[in-house]
Structure formats: structure tokens, C-alpha cells
Model the fold of this input.
Amino acid sequence: MDKRIWIGVGLVAVLGWLGYRLADSSGRTLKALVPPDALLILASERLQDTVSEQALRTQVSLRQIPVFDEASVRLERFLYAAGDTASVRRFVTGKNIRYSLHPASKNALDYIFYIPTEADDQTFLNQLTNPNPRQYRVLSHTFAGERIYDLQSLTNESVGSFLLTKDYLVGSTSGVLIENVARGMRQLTKLPYTGEAFDVDTDQLGRLSIRPDILQSLLGKAGSVVRVFLPEELTLQFRPAASRSHLIGYASDEIGNRRDVANLFEGQTPMRIQSVGLIPQTTATLYHIGVSDPVRFGRSLSNLLSSASSDFLRDRFNRIKPATEALYQSLGTDLLLCRLESSNNVYRQLLILKGRDVKQLSNAYQQAAYLAGASASPPLKTYLGHKVLLLNIPELPASLFSSLFTGFRQSWITQHGSYLVVANSEDVMQEYLQQLTRGTVWSADKRQVELLGQTLRPANFTAFVRLQRTQTSLTSTWPAAWQNLLEPDERTPAITDLENIAYQASYGNEKILSTLVLGRTTRRASQAVLNRVLLQKRRELDAPLTSGPVTIGSLSDEMLQYYAPIDGQLVQVVADETFVSPGLDGPIRSNTLAVDFLDNGRLQYLFMTDRTLYVTDPGQARPGLARKPNKPLAIRLPDGLDVSYLARPRGTQQRNLVALAAHQDGHIYALDRRSRTFVRLLTAPHKGPIQLPFQVITAPTGMEVLALQADGTLNRWRENGSQLPQYPARLGSSDAEFTFVGPALLPPTRSEIQTITEDGQLLRLNASGLIAARSQLYRPLRSGSFRLFPDEALTNWLLLRTTDTEVAVLDQQGNERFQVRALQSGRNNVRYHRLGAGVELITVKSGNFTTLYDLNGRAIGDRPIPSDFPVTLQFDERTNELYILSGVQKTVELFSIRLR
Done:
């Protein structure tokens, strides 16, 4: 009896084992091969497909996504060592190849690839185990009972390691990882991924399973915000979007511990982003919450904030709670947070709230500010037809809408149509209103409209990052291991191919429906026009230019507008028409400021000649509109005013001050638009010219001005005319007197002032103006003079060493980046431009030509730009084109260069 029972049990066990193998043979075997520390798993049978050069300019392939691309590169590096192109293509075509990513060391990640094998593949496998002895050799060793092969070059360099199972070729460029595979083959491995991670349907390009904490770390600063909205597991099935410019990964995962977030969106129908016309073109990061029932959303948000884990948010919300009911009831369907491009890591943010009743929404927001302890507000300012109010209370948006909306040191608010707009600084508000006025918003960009209206799905929550628009590399925030994996050298095509990352989530009762969108909206240039200087427009004038043309608005606009100063006249060119204004008393000497000087809701342009400041209003001129030429408003300059530089009075609490200029005695004058005169605002205790540009700093108490005089006197004024304690600071001493030919700069994200003496002593000064550190830079045989070299917006700086015929651009530590020689003596002009979207250029004008360089000294464009005056540059991020406006004798020319 016992014998029959044991025989029966044995038969059942054998049948069960056979059924198990037949039901899911490949999947179970593969799960046993993957080490349990996998950070992500990729699977695709399309990753090795070739895509034509023409298709890549308009489409995005799976190969252009960085993690997929690097996996494919590692696989090809291994396989092409074993065979020729034809045999490798035959081996991989049509196979669902899987890749898993693992830590290979503390700061290194590497892939393991799993290629299904069949009987027809034996020839290739034989080539792999017996390669051409003139090129490679194979060694083998046994580890954990498995035979591991090591493929090496004849110089003993490892190409990779692999092992063969009945169903798979398992390989990696890391021998350690293959030993981990062998070690785990006889153990029951539990992976953090479902079985779906290993299978790809025929209508999919590929599949990606990734732990949310990994995705969070790759989103940089955005990751900490997005974390709470991500599911605990994420398995994405990738398909192309209808436009083919993006790939879309779909996932459906259990809610798990995300119930609090799901409750916030309970009863809220997922929605598309509707406020396309209010998203500025310079948006680098966008967060959107779409609500169909604002009242219900407000109740859920109140419950969430009342029990917030942050003591600050919880206590603040209890104080402002009486105002929140009216605020939530007046909300509309869109809550948008826009983070604009920032060249210096400073948050430049906008909160855009669509309102059912925008007046009630604005009043409730102000009431919440006063309940939170905001001081009495200063008078309203008017800018471009919008009344702007300062509410000087920190983190009010976060107190009302959760920690997603942090980063508002102040709230500058205005109304635009049915929207309440909140900016975290006056500069951000002014820039935003200028973009609205000029129409540089997403609704004016066909590809962005297509992205929002077709590619992105309706969702409760959307997080969107434009990688190459942040101006500070997203990859710099990655963990070191990821940087080493995806940025092994300067040539990183997959990183540059990817422009947009969007994560979307919709919350149901049991599932979180997730979407990951990857791709680009800017079209790639063909090799025929890449980096070529192309002449776009040319305009002949009646007389020679007396100074360079002055740009009005966007150079990429079909309605190209600019001023051309000629022989006592100011010619305004609008498209193909001209309007002549007489009365210009000389060449333009200064930069140009765009200011709402006349308080009429339009931008006026301010610039100086030797004796006069002119205010021009180009909004009065329109093509086809006959009108009498209007003479620009002329304001007489005080004697001794330096006419080369105009600065914007950022942070001033005096609303009538619109521009600042330096005096040769070291004083600072301000232009008062009410009296239309220059008045002395700040007085220097010691006479001497200021090294331009001086810096205007926005401080909590108002405006500050930092100005260095040539003899080493450093001034730091408050707006009321007094100087900060310890100022003016005297750089140098009786033992060592310093002279300066360049300015001092307090970088926006640093606490130390930077400057350099004429003979190359690099100085760092503390907040009191005392020297904290100094170093002497190397001086070549021909010496030359040193100066601080800030960009035109004073957001960053380099160092410059110049002689009469040479220019050397140095980094911030004084290391030489590149040198330009054989310049024309006395006819040189060097400028540093930060144009947004990460584009930073140096222009070197010598004689009648200007050459453009990147910061590594590589020339931009295939030839110099003809120019009698310094050129004007703009970068159009929609087309990836750099525009250059130049004046030569009687001609104004517009050039463009298509960048990568």
C-alpha cells in the first residue's frame, strides 16, 4: 500500500513539474537567471532595428531613449566581436531580447542581456565560443557549477563574459554580473517585477519595468516632488505616438500605499491641460493638476493639509483656513506650476490658477496672505497693462495646494483674463507678462500644441520636464553611477536626442493608470544645413549705419522689427516697410532696455547717445498703416554720465524708477519716468569711474547695487542711499594696491563676491567685502590684463585675459578654455551670451567680422559673420536655430545657424 502511494505521489510530482515547464517554460527559466538586485528590466525585439537618417529627423525611435540606447550599445559591442554584421543581424532579428541593469560596483552600473536561442543559432554560438584567433580568444572557468566564458582581445582586454543555457545566451561586459547569474541559477529568486516584465506583445516596441525610486532619482529636482504620485511598481509598455515624435509607455499598477493621493482625486475626471495659451515658451518644468469638481477637490485638499506631515504646512493651513473655502470654490479646472529656465539654479516659478470667479479667487488669495501674517502691501505696480501686487509672505502656494508648490519666497500676483497668476519674484512676473504680450507661449507653437492636445493623455496629474531647456544639465543631478553609465564621454547622442519627459497619472479605486512620454518637439537638422550660416533677410538702407541695429521683439518672427540708426535718423523696419523718425543726435552708445515707460501696456525701448536718452514706442507702427513719423521722446543726460550701460532697477520699491546708469565720479543715477529726468540716487564717497557692468541685486528690503571702482573701492548701496555695514570696502592695502579693469559680481546662488585684479589676482570676498581667498593666475610672456567676464544678464561669469591682438577665455578657477589670436589691434569686442535652452556662446568681433564660439572654443557656423558693430543674438528653441542680426555699411542682415 505504502509503495503504491509513493508511486502515485511521484507520478503527480512529475506531471506537475512537466505541466509547470510547458505552461511557462521560458518565463520561469528567465526569472531564475536574473539576479534580484535588478534596477530595471528592458525587453524588446525592435531595439536593434535600423532607422534611416531622414526618419530620425522627424521621428523618435526606441534606440534614441538613453537607457535603451546604452543597453543596445553594450550588446552590439559584445556580439560584433564574435561575428560579421550579417551573421549578427540574422542572430538577433525577431528575437525578444531582455536586458537587466545592475550595480557592478559602487559607482558603476552594467547590463546583462538575455538572448533566446534556437537550434538554428548553433552556427553563431560556435563562432562565439571559437572566435577568429587573429582577433580574439575565449577563456573559460567554472563558477557555482556553471561554465563561464570570457571573451578577450589579443591584448588581454576583456570584451565580455557569457554563459550558455538550454534556452538563452546570457552575456555582459561585466564578468562580476555573469558570476552573479551563475550563483543565483539554483536559488529561488524573488524579483521586484511581475512576469509581464519579460514579455512583449507584437504591437509594442518594448517594455520597461522600473522601480519608482529609480525613476525619481533620474528626474533630478523634479523627482522629490513626483515621488508621492508614482505607483510602487511601474511596468510600461511602449508604443509610438500618433505624431511619431514621441514614444508612450502605458502602465496599470495597484494603488498600494498611494491611497492618500488617490483620495485627493476621488470623483475627479482626468483632464487634458487646457491653459495652453498661458504656458510661457521658456518653461523648463511643468506640473499640472486637472480637476473637474473644484469644490470636492478643495475639501479633499483641506483634509490632506490639515493632517500634513510638515509642521509648518499644518500650522500655516490652520491659520489661513477661514479663507480657503472661498478660494477653493472659485477655482476652475487647471492648476499649473511652471518653472522657467534658470541659468543659475534659482527657482523662477509661476503658479497659474484658472478661476470660475477670478476676482473672488484673487481676493481669497490675498485674504489668506494677510491671515498668514503678510505685512501691509506696497502700492500696486502697473506693467504691460496688468496691475501687479506684492504679498510678502513665504510659501503661500504650498500652504494652499501642498508641498508640490514650494519655492515662493514672495507672491507677486496679477490677473489675466480668467486666470490668477502668482510669480515668486518681480523679475519672473515681468518676463512672463512680456512673453504673453509677444505671444511666445505654447499655443503659438504647433508642435507643443500637438504634444498637449494629442500625445499627452487626459490625467489627474502631469509632470513634464524639458531636458535641454533647463540650462543646467539634468544629468548633473543624477547619482554618480548613472552619470558614468549614460555619460561615459562627450559623445552622448541618446541624451541629446531626448528632449521631453512627461509622467502622467490617473487614479481609480484599485489601479493607478500611468503614462510615461519620451521624445522631442524640435525637429533635427539635416547635415546639409547643420552649423551652416544661412542668410535669411537683407535690407538696404539709404545711408550708412552709425551704430548697430536695435532688435525689437523676436528675430525669428516673420514680422521682423528693428531700429536702424542712420545719419541723424532712426529708421524703424517692420517686415518690408520703414518708418523714419528724425532727430537722433548721434550714434547709439548703450545697450537697450525694454520697459513699459509710458505705462500704456506696451514695451518701449530705451537707449543712450552721447548726450541723450531716447524712449521709442514701436507699438505705434504697423505694416500698411500710414502714419506721420513720430519723434522719439528725448531726455537730456546729466554731464559726466557714462553712456555705455543701462541697468534695470530690480527689486526697487519706487515704482517710477525705470533705469539706472553710472556717473564718471562713481555715483549712480536713476531715470524717473514721472519727471522724465535723471536724478542722483546713490552717491559714491570716493570719486572714480565704476567698472561696468555694475550689479543690481534684489534683496528682501528692496534693491541693492554692487559697484567696483577702478582703484579697488567696492560699494554696496541700499536703495535709500546708505551703504551696507563695512562698505565701502577698500580692496588692497598700503603694501599692495590693486587696479581693476573689470567688475565685481555676487553670483545669485553664492554668498561670496568674485572679482580679479588687472594683473591676475583672483579674489573671493565675503559678505562684508573682506578678502576671503586669493590666488595669482599664470601670466604669459606677453602678460595682458585680466577682468571678470560676466554674461550680458549677469547670471554667470568667466574670466578674460586680453592683449591688443589676443583674447583668452578662462573658466572661473582661471584655467584656460581657449584662445583667439591674430586679432586686429584696437578693433576687438568680446561678449558672453547665455541664450536659454543651455546655449552659451562667446562672440569675438575683430575688424569687420564676428566669429561665434562655444565655451570649448569650437567655432559656431562655417564662416564668420560680416559686422561693423557687435551683433545681436537670439536662440529660437522651437526650431533650434540661432539668429544673428548684423549691420554692415548701408545694410542690415539677418543670419541663422541650425544647431544640433
Observations:
- Residues 21-210 form one domain.
- Residues 11-28 have pLDDT under 50 and may be disordered.
